[in-house]
Amino acid sequence: MKKRLIAFTTMAALTAFGVYAQDAEDPFADAVETRHGLMLQMASDLGTLGGMAKGEAAYDKTAATKAAANVAAIASVISMAQFPAGSENGKSADSYALADVWAKQDDFLAKVADLNNAAAAMQTAAATDADAIKASMAQLGGACSACHKAYRQPES
């Protein structure tokens, strides 16, 4: 019993040290992971709305309003808090954020505001019909694209 306790304690300590060492190597890992999670969820919800806009999926008011609400909620939390200085591509593992996020912070935040406006418009459209979603998708897609073109390293 005592040997098992020692073995368990040793494994727990090594595991904790490994996690600590990983964080010490990249102090921005959590921020980057949070950004990725937010963007993946937004992409999933945009896929739901896009399918309805393209006629690939039948309009479903409940699903559309839920997806649009999720997009708006995610847009509302995007701020410099998810982009701490030093978490850019090349300095933080798995980061696609370009250094211009910080160099041109006012423009970056203006693009985030555009995303919030487009997400709010999509919420109204999603409660209407597929044609309204289709019309609103251009504004929302444009807001996403404008930010990604300026501030995101393309995946290779």
UniProtKB/TrEMBL annotation:
InterPro entries: Cyt_c/b562, Cyt_c_II, Cyt_c_prime, Cyt_c_prime_subgr
Signal peptide positions on this chain: 1-21
Keywords: Electron transport, Heme, Iron, Metal-binding, Signal, Transport
PROSITE patterns found in the cross-reference section: CYTCII
Source species, domain of life: Bacteria
Keyword Electron transport: yes
Pfam families registered for this protein in UniProt: Cytochrom_C_2 (PF01322)
Record protein name field: C-type cytochrome
